[in-house]
Design a protein that fits this description.
The complex is a heterodimer of chains A (184) and B (307). Chain A has one helix and eleven strands. Chain A is an alpha+beta fold and 184 residues long. Chain A has one domain: minor pseudopilin epsh fold. The mean pLDDT of chain A is 89. Chain B has one domain. Chain B has six helices and eleven strands. In chain B, strands 7-6-5-4-3-9 form a six-stranded antiparallel β-sheet. In chain B, strands 8-10-11 form a three-stranded antiparallel β-sheet, sandwiched between helices. Chain B has a two-stranded antiparallel sheet with strand order 1-2. Chain B is elongated. The chains are: A alpha+beta (184), B alpha+beta (307).
Chain lengths: 184, 307
């Protein structure tokens, strides 16, 4: 009769072992998911800058890259390309993956940018934005002063903190607007 | 007998279940390490593509910018105080000179960079060169420092052009100031080789303009004076980031790389054999590398052999 099956204690032991294993494994998966989100957001940002540079060159017209903060949000988390001379959008806005944001303490360039509020109409009406402009020649407008040329970068991370464990920093070459990516 | 056997095999014992789960655990670990190495391979392949794409973009940039190089050639007295004859002169300057890795080129081109105004057609001084060193002068503060070979570009704005203030090549120093004027355009570029030459039919050896790759439109030989070379063969040697991080040894340039380039690319007639030797040395050091080479025609060159 003793060998009829598992006792309750045995089942509990197995379940406990499984639970411990799960607890150990989950953080690893979380960090993989979050790092893939950071990579995706960084590719979005550098892709939009590349696209802006190419559009400016092809259309021979300065283009504005707007970094958007949704109404009521505390962080910048979307981008839109804009034709300032036409007063109309060049592309649809792109939004960072869930939870990814621009880490303002590691993005000194933000404070040097122009700012404004999106006009009424459309889903981003009333959103505040910061923006920089790329000329058809590829250089940034206005040209960063000599001391600021190395400060032209933006950082994406999962949280707003001065020392995130995982981040991607995108620096922009002020002469050519080509992005340079840094990962830890 | 049958009954007791049935009774004995009714369920698994705890030990059996534990053994089974241990085997499963080992299998999972083996599988995950296999997928992990697969992911690593994929990531390496991706980084290799990224790496070379930045270098290719930089290479294209050299070609397109160099093709716009210009000089303002005119004829004037050789010595205005006591003239003897007319000579070709130019206030602008094209300079190809040996650099730490290969050669560096400096010239003027109408790139229209002038601070905050948008007027077009303005002249800029431009330079391309390869350097080994730290990125601390331009990298963001929170990013760890890296020592790498890099392709650098300097574009001096029209409002601070210095080419007119000197009679030699010292104006190029200002073009090389990092990060005020110079900025990196690609990492892990080992060398830039610039070969000014005439069309191949006219000059099969390629040494009519310069025997040692150097070209100086101000102080060079009579054939170089105040005129642009009709074409420049641009060659760039690039390695991948995986090799670069493997060879990285603090602030010193990896000797496996520097020794491969010692005494190379100083004589145009040995260009092919030098390139072969460098490639062989890099392969021997297990450095994945790529050679980009193309010839660029300088549109503004009005070639004439009359000195």
């Amino acid at each position: 009769m003793k060998r009829r099956g598992f006792s309750l204690i045995e089942l509990l032991a197995v379940v406990a072992v499984l639970a411990i294993l799960l607890v150990l494994v989950t953080p690893a998966f979380n960090s993989i998911a979050s790092s893939s989100n950071i990579t995706q957001a960084a590719n979005m940002l550098s892709g939009q800058i590349e696209l802006a540079r190419q559009l400016a060159e092809v259309r021979n017209r300065s283009i504005e890259v707007r970094i958007l903060k949704k109404n009521g949000d505390s962080h910048f988390s979307a981008l839109q390309l804009w034709w300032p001379s036409l007063g109309q959008p060049a592309e649809k806005p792109v939004v960072f993956p869930q939870g990814m944001l621009l880490n303002e303490s590691l993005s000194p360039w933000l404070s040097k940018m122009g700012s404004g509020t999106m006009a009424a109409g459309g889903s981003w009406a009333g959103a505040t934005y910061r923006s920089f402009t790329i000329r058809p020649s590829g250089e940034l407008d206005p040209r960063p002063s000599a001391g600021d040329r190395a400060q032209v970068f933006l950082t994406i991370s999962a949280r707003e903190e001065p020392t995130p464990s995982n981040y991607t920093t995108i620096q922009v070459n002020p002469d050519t607007s080509r992005p340079i990516l840094y990962r830890p | 007998m049958g009954k007791s056997r049935a009774k004995r095999c009714y369920g698994f014992s705890l030990v059996e279940v534990l053994v089974a789960s241990a085997i499963l655990g080992v299998l999972v670990i083996l599988l995950s390490s296999a997928t992990g190495s697969l992911l690593n391979t994929l990531r390496n392949a991706h980084s290799k593509i990224d790496q070379y794409s930045a270098a290719r973009a930089g290479f294209e940039q050299i070609l397109s910018t160099l093709s716009q190089a210009t000089l303002n050639t005119y004829w004037d007295y050789d010595n205005p105080a006591n003239p003897n004859n007319y000579v070709r002169k130019s206030d602008l300057h094209l300079l190809i000179a040996p650099s730490t890795m290969g050669h560096a080129v400096f010239f003027q081109a109408p790139l229209s960079r002038n601070g905050n105004t948008t007027s077009s057609g303005l002249l800029n001084a431009v330079g391309f060169w390869v350097d080994f060193g730290s990125d601390s002068q331009w990298k963001p503060g929170h990013v760890p420092e890296q020592f790498r070979f890099r392709l650098m570009q300097g574009i001096q704005p029209a409002d601070s052009l210095q080419v007119f203030t000197t009679t030699d090549g010292s104006w190029t120093n200002a073009v090389k100031t990092i990060p005020d004027v110079g900025f990196p355009i690609a990492s892990n570029v080992l060398a830039l080789i610039l070969w000014p030459r005439l069309p191949v039919v006219q000059d099969p050896e390629g040494n009519d303009l310069s025997a040692n790759f150097a070209y100086n439109s101000r102080q060079g030989s009579a054939i170089q004076k105040a005129q642009l070379p009709p074409s420049v063969q641009v060659t760039m040697i690039v390695m991948d980031e995986a090799s670069a991080s493997r060879l990285a040894s603090g602030s010193a340039a990896p000797t496996a790389i520097t020794s491969a380039f010692t005494n190379r690319f100083q004589d145009v007639t040995r260009f092919e054999s030098d390139l072969e030797a460098v490639r062989a040395a890099l392969t021997a050091a297990k450095v994945n590398h790529l050679v980009l080479s193309s010839s660029v025609t300088l549109r503004e060159a009005k070639w004439s052999q009359t000195p």
